[in-house]
Amino acid sequence: MESDRIVALATPYGGAALAVIRTSGAGSIEAVAAMTDREARIIATEGGRLRRALLVDPESDEVLDEVVLSIYRAPASYTGEDVVEISCHGNPSGIQRILSSLMENGFRPADPGEFTMRAFLAGKLDLTRAEAVNEVVNAQTGAAHEMALRRLGGSVEVAIDTLKRELVPIMAAVTVQIDYPEEETGEIPFPRETVERVRSSLQELADSYRTGRLYQEGIRVALAGRTNAGKSSLFNAILKEERAIVSETHGTTRDYIESHLDLRGIPALLFDTAGLRRTREEIESEGIRRSRAVIESADVVLYVVDGIRGYAEEDQRLLQEIENLTGGTTILVWNKIDHGSCTAAPVGTVAVSATSVQGIATLAERIRSAVQREEPVRPGAPVIDSLRQHNLLNRAADALAHVLEGLDQAMPVDVIGLDLQEALNALGEITGEVTSADILDAVFGSFCVGK
């Protein structure tokens, strides 16, 4: 695979001022240079330099575009191979012509994540950093992006390597005891405290997965309640924009609408749903059915009560129905507190005004605390966002727990050694020292082709 020359569009496809087409593989510089009006000069260019040129189709001699070539020579490139990145104009038809010409002249389309896979195989980055590349690209908020950048910078790799360095000498001592009988070497003290500390650190890192996924995947928040409770007004107030139609007419919202929201670093998808009530009107009934489906899949349901009308028996019935539908958290929101006729908000509710935005910040914090139940991660501590890493960390922690149980039960040293080796193997799989083709395909298969 590494000998192939590959090409892919590294920027989003569509009209733009510029686009970047990425190539990699042995001979890439010469192959691209042969398609320009400055072949000899480009071939002689040192790595880390830019060259302006006309890109020409070798078959027709037709000028494809005026481009800037970023030239990187092996091994000082992202992939460790010769790399040329072609900065061209972002016209979709022009991009396609360039890609087609490159593929007719020695390049093949890159597989998803193949550039980063080549970087991993060349030893440019470990598997945790490789996964972080995709996490940086897909981060939806500033906080998620910052966490992913720390992983890309090696926070997880450093943590794993530090813990491995504590286990390796213990494994070496155990191996000595296995290879040389006790009567020859004497019993070597076993550092139980070290194993306990490493196991605790591994579990803490594994537990950070809940936070990592929360910030990377986000949550679904649905507004629900009776008609005219002020759901659409509250939807607009939370988003700080006029997205939903607001009217005094009952049943205005006939279907759910949604919008993305940055909830203090946690990405959220906010839904405004149709008012829940019994109706024979066909279109409104379908909207209510769809709204129930949204509520069922929500992580948090904001049940909005009109504070002027107060809490009625119908609200109790609907709340019970919602709690039966969803496994998420339901928060009772008492709306219209700015109105003189508003009744006092019951204890436990969040009092807001969708009109004056009173209480909106409190509501946002209530939602945030509802989904982030675990203890916050220590400042600066690494946070993982990979189910693969999470499972392997748990595997390593479980193996060390078995080591401690073996010590308590005075198990033979070779049995303890097997558990220690299991922990080290799991940590090696996290960083990619121990891996397989199937695992690599799973890791890189979710990348875009330009990465």
Word description of this protein:
Helix content is 46%, strand content 17%. The chain is an alpha/beta fold. It folds into 3 domains: 6-110, Gyrase A, domain 2 (2-Layer Sandwich); 142-208 and 381-444, Four Helix Bundle (Hemerythrin (Met), subunit A) (Up-down Bundle), CATH 1.20.120.430; 221-371, P-loop containing nucleotide triphosphate hydrolases (Rossmann fold, 3-Layer(aba) Sandwich). It is flat and about 80 Å long.
Enumerate the spans where pLDDT stays under 50 for 5 or more consecutive residues: 243-254
Inertia-based shape: flat
Secondary-structure element pattern, one letter each: EEHHEEEHEHHHHHHHEHEEHEHEEHHHH
CATH superfamily of the largest domain: P-loop containing nucleotide triphosphate hydrolases
Q: How would you write the strand order of the largest sheet? A: 3-4-5-2-1-6
Q: Termini, distance in Å?
A: 16 Å
What is the mean pLDDT? 86
How can the largest sheet be summarized? 6 strands, mixed
Mind telling me the C-alpha Rg?
29 Å
Number of distinct helices: 17
Helix content: 40-55%
CATH fold assignment of the largest domain: Rossmann fold
**Beta-strand segment tally:** 12
CATH architecture of the largest domain: 3-Layer(aba) Sandwich
Content of β-strand = 15-25%
Overall tally of structural domains: 3
Give me the secondary-structure category. Answer: alpha/beta
What is the CATH domain class of the largest domain? Alpha Beta
